[in-house]
Amino acid sequence: MAQILAPSTQWQMRISKSSPNASPITSNMWSSLLWKQNKKVSPTSSAKFRVMAIKSDNSIINRLEGLLNLDITPFTDKIIAEYIWIGGTGIDVRSKSRTISKPVEHPSELPKWNYDGSSTGQAPGDDSEVILYPQAIFKDPFRGGNNILVICDSYTPQGEPIPTNKRHRAAEIFSNPKVQAEVPWYGIEQEYTLLQTNVKWPLGWPVGGYPGPQGPYYCSAGADKSFGRDISDAHYKACLYAGINISGTNGEVMPGQWEYQVGPSVGIEAGDHIWASRYILERITEQAGVVLSLDPKPIEGDWNGAGCHTNYSTKSMREDGGFEVIKKAILNLSLRHKDHISAYGEGNERRLTGKHETASINTFSWGVANRGCSIRVGRDTEKNGKGYLEDRRPASSMDPYVVTSLLAETTLLWEPTLEAEALAAQKLALKV
Questions:
Q1: What is the dihedral of CA 104, 107, 113, 114, to 10 degrees?
Q2: Contact between residue 87 and residue 121 where contact means Cβ atoms under 8 Å apart
Q3: Torsion over CA of 173, 176, 180 and 181, rounded to 10 degrees?
Q4: Does residue 6 register a pLDDT over 50?
Q5: Which member of 18, 171, 190, 365 has the lowest number of beta carbons within 10 Å of its beta carbon?
Q6: What EC class is this (predicted)?
Q7: Domain boundaries 177-428, corresponding CATH code
């Protein structure tokens, strides 16, 4: 098994066997330094070479790395903007670059752009132009300087949001005065799985085989328990550099699986930050030669799936008496359980089985400190009488624009009938 934590073949420079002074890249470069050679693969295979710097008598020669790390700021006012959008599957991220004449501070300063929607499954070939509207900007951790990443959403040339543009509807909900007055906060826990490139099997697992049972891997340390830490750490720092509100990271229960948390974020910002963080993670795994998977159940059997637990609170929930507001929100969520499940990520039925810290997909439940429920309330929230709730149903592949706006809509804008409310309160043992 090869634990590949080094740049992809696009970056690679072949090392001459006659270069006795070859040494690894310096630690300040993006690529990871740690990798293990797969003994089954010939060390001379061009597909397995990793970037190495060749020392001359006076300097390290690595022209490609030199150009990639080149700071253009002293020489031009122009910057590179990486326009990022969501592709036709609703989960794939696409991007392309353009030169902007000077640094910008707000997305309104950027021009709209377009792309070939027929190549992303978002438009027919005879009318393929889709328009990108810049919506949020982040510092570019790959190019540095004044260069930026631009989160965009997609529209027809007539200005209509295309079907995969979920941000547009979310923005409408978050701009509702009733929602704005409640200042909705989100903390999103994004789980993901790292896969070996050629076999699409989790990082650290024997090819075609299984590691020992779950137990020793969660938040672990050690070469036999933790696989992919360099990727997680690189991603953590890159997100902080970019201005993403990342708040932590940890190894997960299944080996080769990790989690990071983004938030607290307010309203539409939560979706923008998650999509930007996913794009950065895709780029880092690309460089590391590892495949990123957001599949909610990447390995069948007695293994944890991957979720995107969403912590949520409103101003009323965070103030004195907020626990009663939380219980009313839970009541509303129970009545729209099917609506939420249908919007919480494809393949989620393979994950929400009632096992491995999940509730059954068919049954709504809530509890204090119970990770086997649909909605979990923390001990501190119960004790303090205010706080937040955790929706544990969203899959790792969920669209954060959809989940965050749906939570706001259901708890702040949607009103059940009095009869339905009474029946649900009785069923859930809620006194509201």
A1: 140
A2: yes
A3: -140
A4: no
A5: 18
A6: ligase
A7: 3.30.590.10
pLDDT at 12: 31
Q: Where are the domains of the chain?
A: 1-70, 79-161, 177-428
CA–centroid distance for 138 within its chain? 15
Topology of the domain covering 79-161? Ubiquitin-like (UB roll) (3.10.20)
pLDDT for 432 equals: 52
Burial classification of residue 130, based on how many CB atoms lie within 10 Å of its CB (0-12 exposed, 13-18 middle, 19 or more buried)? buried
Pseudo-torsion of CA 40, 46, 47, 52, nearest 10°? 100
* CA distance linking residue 257 with residue 227, whole number of Å: 8
Helix (H) or strand (E) holding 175: none
Helices marked H in 74-187 — which ranges?
166-174, 177-181
Q: Which pLDDT score, from 0 to 100, does residue 50 have? A: 44
**pLDDT > 90? residue 3:** no
Report pLDDT for 83.
Answer: 98
The whole-number average pLDDT for the span 147-157 is 98
Measured from the Cβ of residue 318, the count of other Cβ atoms closer than 10 Å reads 18
List helix spans (H) across 108-228: 166-174, 177-181
Q: Looking at residue 431, what is its pLDDT?
A: 56
Which residues, in sequence order, are CB contacts of 160 under 8 Å at separation 6+?
Answer: none
Between CA 220 and CA 230 the distance in angstroms is 14
- How many Cβ atoms are within 10 Å of 286's Cβ, its own excluded? 15
Average pLDDT on 255-276 reads: 98
If you average pLDDT over each of 44-48, 198-202, 249-253, which comes out highest? 249-253
Which residues lie across from 249 on neighbouring strands? 260
| Amino acid, single-letter form, for residue 206 | P
Residues 6+ apart with CB under 8 A from 26: 53, 60
User: For residue range 269-303, what is the model confidence (pLDDT) as tens digits?
Assistant: 999 999 999 999 999 999 999 999 999 999 999 99
Q: What is the DSSP letter of 353?
A: B
